[in-house]
Amino acid sequence: MQVNRLEFERVVKRDRIVHAIDTEKVKCDKTSIQTMYKDLNEKKPDVLKRLYSEYKYAGKTAVNIFEAPDFPFELNNKDAFLKHIKGKLGINSRVTGIEFRPVLSLMPKINFVDDLGDAILIQWVSGEPKVGWSGYEVVEQIKPSFEIMLIRFGSPVFVEVRSGYTNSRKFLNHFEQLISTDERGIISINWLPVTQVTEKEAEKIASILNAGLLESEVIGEGCIGRLSLSAAPGIEDLNEQQQYRDMVSGRAYLSQVFHVNYQELDTGYSTKVKFRINHKGGFEFKNKVSERIIRRILDVFVEVRYGFESKTDSDGNEAVGL
């Protein structure tokens, strides 16, 4: 299947493409993502597909994880959950790997389901009519909007939403409707936000990842407004600056932006990862990242919140920070 050029350019990070080209020794024009896409598509389409698969549902994205402590026991495994979805959608054939393309409406519907091995992925789609120009005509169009959700079964169950914190809550409500039945009744889950951390937890996460603080927002004078602070060029960690520590002393954090020098021991790929923690709820990557990077960073959140040991990736390698 042809990799969509626009989607490839939107989600895959440039330095990851360059690393793959250099590793595979592909003769390629590396002036832009567009030219690299063209050359890889002609000379190494398998490499292009592999790169896209690493970033397809990732890229530059918000990610919020919620624990579902009262998730229905009978649905807490992939087979039972997929069987339930088939019943909800009213289909008898396989449910994974098929794009359903439902009629677009304001109400999110399931467009795609995939088995990722360690999780079930649900792609929701919705659309809002908007008036715009098409050539010289004014027309009403409905542009699809996609949101990704991953369900990780176990004890506890974690539901990951690739969306902003407020928006992700809306999709959790739709997920409750999905798992509800006439027999089971309306399900209401006590969603516990894993990516909403305290200042001390954020400090521990940064310490484990060896992350430097680049930006922060704190409560302003007299608890009015907010004070935004950014690192000057050349400063890797604001916390190492006495002037910064004096300015934020005694103030509550609203958000923090960290950066990590990420490296994969097996592939040799390294890059800088930048992410924001919003202390009122919400987490987002500020640059394009792969599924593997998302898992490494968010495993540390789970480790800190629950005392779990941080996981290695599927190849048994640990991604390391500074």
Please describe what this structure looks like.
- The protein is of the alpha+beta class and 322 residues long.
- It has three domains: 5-55, no CATH class; 64-193; 199-306, no CATH class.
- 31% of the residues lie in helices and 27% in strands.
- The protein is built from nine helices and eleven strands.
- The protein has a six-stranded antiparallel sheet, with helices on one face.
- Strand 3 and strand 4 form a beta hairpin.
- Helix 3 (33-43) crosses helix 4 and helix 7 packs across helix 9.
- The relative contact order is 0.13.
- Residues 311-322 have low confidence and may be disordered.
List key phrases describing it:
disordered C terminus, single chain, six-stranded antiparallel β-sheet, alpha+beta, about 30% helix, 3 domains, 9 helices, five-stranded antiparallel β-sheet, 11 strands, about 325 residues
Distance between the termini: 38 Å
Structural class: alpha+beta
Helix count, DSSP H or I runs of 4 or more residues: 9
Please provide the ordered H/E string of secondary-structure elements.
HHHHEHEEEEHEHEEHEEEH
Strand order of the largest sheet: 2-3-4-5-1-6
* Major sheet description: 6 strands, antiparallel
| Mean pLDDT score | 90
Shape: globular
In total, the number of domains comes to 3
Radius of gyration from CA coordinates: 22 Å
Question: What share of residues is helical?
Answer: 25-40%
